From TrEMBL:
Cited Gene3D superfamilies: Type I PLP-dependent aspartate aminotransferase-like (Major domain), Winged helix-like DNA-binding domain superfamily/Winged helix DNA-binding domain
One Pfam family linked to the record: GntR
Family: In the C-terminal section; belongs to the class-I pyridoxal-phosphate-dependent aminotransferase family.
PANTHER family in the cross-refs: HTH-TYPE TRANSCRIPTIONAL REGULATORY PROTEIN GABR (PTHR46577)
Region described as Disordered: spans on this chain: 88-113
Listed Basic and acidic residues bias regions: 92-101
Organism: Cohnella yongneupensis
Protein known as: PLP-dependent aminotransferase family protein
Record CDD domains: AAT_like, WHTH_GntR
Entry-linked InterPro entries: Aminotransferase_I/II_large, HTH_trans_reg/aminotransferase, PyrdxlP-dep_Trfase, PyrdxlP-dep_Trfase_major, Tscrpt_reg_HTH_GntR, WH-like_DNA-bd_sf, WH_DNA-bd_sf
Keyword flag Nucleotide-binding: no
Amino acid sequence: MIALTPILDKAGESPLYWQLYAFIRGEIESGTIQAGTKLPAIRELSLHLKVSKNTVETAYQQLIAEGYAESRSRSGLFALAVEEPVAVPPRDPQDLTRETRSPAQRQTAATRTRENAAEVAFDFRYGDVEIRRFPMAVWKKCLLDALSEPNPRKTLDYGHPQGDEELRSEIASYLFQSRGVRCNAEQIVMSAGTQHSVGMLCQLLPLRDKLIAMEDPGYSGVRAALESHGCEIAPIPLDADGLQVDLLPGVRAAAVYVTPSHQFPLGMVLPIQRRNKLLQWATEHDGLIIEDDYDSEYRYVGQPIPSLKALDYRDRVIYLGTLSKSFLPAARLSYAVLPEPLAAPMREKLGMFSQSASPLIQQAMLRFMREGHFGRHVRKMKRLYQIKHRALLAALQRHMGDRVDIIGQKAGLHLLIDVKTGAGQADLIERALAAGIRVYSPAQQWFKPERCPPTYIMLGFGGLDEHRIDEAIRRLAAAWF
């Protein structure tokens, strides 16, 4: 086992975990630490460097996430081979703070930033995912293998109305293992996005022109899809635990749309007592529950939360899932799991519709999942997003402290902050943009946007470089306070 003795600047602005990670990464890239070399144990290295075990663990997690090391069961952490030279080394966050431009140059740059969104240095857009670590070579191979499929109708024709049967079987197996959902391929319908799934349900169940209850606030994309099919929306307010289920009987809705495992956008988890009440409401009022489990893979605090569908013994829950967060938004792959009583009649009606998700992409995804790449990718991304999540929380605490309240920080790829400056959303967004940072208002998720607290800001972190999050928040704090 090797000994590591980097020079760590404990008084510097760069987090210690980042300094340690950058040192080990450099040693691996230079060949000083060769592939197959066992790295020191976390406890041993923390004692040697006189830093916390969390510091070492976070640095190691970053190395694993980027493919510089791997954890072997009961053996420890080992360096991996670097297949390609890195053209540009990671920049130290301290380097990003050094301003060499004149005041006039800075003013000109700020003006250009306001006028040209393409020059924004940091974009906290919700929905962005990590693209740089996507296993592109593996995905290309899966696409090529799909194109080489002996039966070209599987990839080049319109496809089965429900989607590829083998892919649906893989998804059924994945859902049972990851979310406790018991279903079979015949209950699953593939589609090109959650909004398309909702539109399909409106046409085929049918839900058109029916009254649908929704969380308020709740996902505006689904609300738009429902309204475009003539549905009337009954907004149900939230409290600290999520949807106020006791209000449902009074609205006489045919169905209710919920995000129980990670409420969007506020982030709370619907407790088991309310889940049971919600299922009871559906049974007693012959209602349906549309469960959108949009980012269940990414939970950072506590144990994984079982899906509502896993508790559904009366076949009242329609489960919606997507691969946009766990894989690629561009793949346009989502799915609906129908209760068995609804699946059979819906299959008959689906014959009138063409499958909206590309058969070629479905065949490639089948290979990606069947060969184990999807599971590895999700595990890798979960570690990486956890690092970004920790970096964002640490930066908010470091640079903003009690001047902001953090909302919904336990899971997902976004959080909300309540900014205590007295300024409204429009002013906060404009000041951030002048500093080269794009942040967003969550107001459109409210049934009546004016009811959104005027100091709420949404920060999506999935697409950000984890090494630059601290600098982004530092600049944001300087612009706001």
